[in-house]
Amino acid sequence: MLNTRFIFFFVLFDIIVGDVSIEWDKFKHKYNKQYKIIDEEIERKQIFIENHNEIHSFFTQELVSSRRNTLKSYTSSFKSTREVKDLPESLDWRDKGVITEVYHDEVGGIVTAVVDTELVESLHAIEAGKLTSIRLLSTIHGCF
Questions:
Q1: What value does the mean pLDDT take over residues 38-60?
Q2: Which of 46, 76, 106 is the last residue of a domain?
């Protein structure tokens, strides 16, 4: 068990260090860096690794915080919830007359256009109180 953990740790360490070493080699090649003394290269590589880790740490923190802030602003734009009473046991939109006939595969399987067309038809019927069929080809042409 101990040997397995040691091997796992060693492989993981090698992957992490190997990745940074590849970045170091790319950096040296790109900026034509050559070091005559091995001690200087070791020192410069250590500085590179520290900077590399700092940059990646910053990006990770920045992305997480920006995602968190985006989520807060996104959810705050919703209307507040309200208690809804007297909900029916079930709801079938076909009974409400806001679902059109199922489209047959007229255009070779463009599912997104079919779903979009049916969605627009249903939303229009709910808002306007009148069911209207939209030509599927019009939706497809609008998508491309």
A1: 80
A2: 76
